[in-house]
Structures are given as C-alpha cells and as structure tokens.
Amino acid sequence: MKETILNHEDLLDMLDSLLREPEGFWDSFYSDRSKGVPFFVNKPDESLAGYFNGGMLKPGKVLEMGSGPGRNAIYFAENGCEVDAIDLSEESLRWAKERADERGVRVNFIHSNLFRFQFEENTYDIVYDSGCFHHIAPHRRMNYIEMVQKALKPGGYFALTCFVEGGKWGGSDITDWEVYRQRSLNGGLGFTEEKLKTIFSDFEVIDIRRMKNADEDAPVFGVSGLWAGLFKKK
C-alpha cells in the first residue's frame, strides 16, 4: 500500500520523490562552509536592503522560505522584524543559529518541509524567498503560490530572488513538461521576466529587475544572474 496513489497528495508526494533533492543532499551541501558558494556570505541581498532603504518594505512579521545560513533572516531581525525562517536542512539552520547568536538577534528558525509547515492565515507582512523558488518543481508551484497568498496579510509583500534563465550561476531553460521527461530540474529552473509575471499574476507587480552585482567588500550580496522581484498581495 505504501506506493498506492489514493489521493492528490499521494500523487504530489510521488512526483516529489522523482525530482526533489532529499534532505541529506542539502545537509551535505551546507556541511562544508569553506567552499566558494556565492550566497554563503553573511550579507543580505542587495535588493532586500534596497527595498528597506527605499521605504518599500517596513518592519513587520516576516516568513522566510528556504532561509539557508540565515543571512537575510538576520537582516530582517536587525531591522526590527519578527522573523520565522524555514529550511529543510538542519545543517543550514545550525549555521544560521550560530550567525544569529554572534549578531545578538533573535530569529525563530524552523526545521520543516515547506509544504508541511503549519501557520495561521493572514499572519505575515512580508514573505521572502531567496533561492528557494527555482528549486520548486512545477507540480508544487500552485501549492507554493497558495501558501504565499494564505501567509500574507491583505496588502502584504512577497519578495524573491531566483535564477535568470541561462544565468551564470544556474537557471535551466527547459520547459515544465521537459522537467518530467528528464526527471530533473537540472540544478534549478531559470525564469524570464514574462514568465515570472505570468506565474505571479494574482499579485500586483511592484518591481522585477536583475539583481545588481555587488563587490566582495560591499555590505550586501548581489549577482546579476538572479532576478529580484517584489509583489504585493491584492
């Protein structure tokens, strides 16, 4: 009975098993902190800092989806936000907690599968995603959008960074159908501006642009191979 599909959730779980990197993969990925992964730096996204500095985002209750080593969650906390930060990897959360302690800020780090996370609807002023969305398989995309919609308060903001199609750091240009022919996301899906606007058509588009490159000595993280987007719940 274990592999019998009896309902829609069983079908999604089966498709997950074909495509999703398991928890052990991400624990291994984050276990070597010295490798040259660009976003391992302890700096916030330049777009996030820009939204705050420009007054587009203000302190409030934040949900970060796929928080990794915690760099953006810590930035939110340092700017007066109450932060719930979810990640699938215990190893990344361990690193994030160490960083938060070093900076003297409180973040509620949560070890959870994104689609198993329980929350009260209309709770968050901001939902933030830096690098999680392009690892979401197409069959889970509707669940993802529904989660963001439910999590946000009316008029709340959703911001993300994700791979540009064919970008330097990743961004597969295959179609959603081809994902299942190949049984692979090819390291992460890439997007065009038009596709992002189509996928998030239920939101008001505030900003979609290429992330700005940031120098190594800059106080923010930025590479042009990522999109930066800011949307508002209608």
UniProtKB/TrEMBL annotation:
Domain Methyltransferase residue range list: 62-156
InterPro entries linked to this entry: Methyltransf_25 (IPR041698), SAM-dependent_MTases_sf (IPR029063)
Record keywords: Methyltransferase, S-adenosyl-L-methionine, Transferase
Domain of life: Bacteria
Gene3D superfamilies named among the record's database cross-references: Vaccinia Virus protein VP39
Annotated GO biological process: methylation
MF terms (GO), sorted A to Z: methyltransferase activity
One Pfam family, short name: Methyltransf_25
Protein name: SAM-dependent methyltransferase
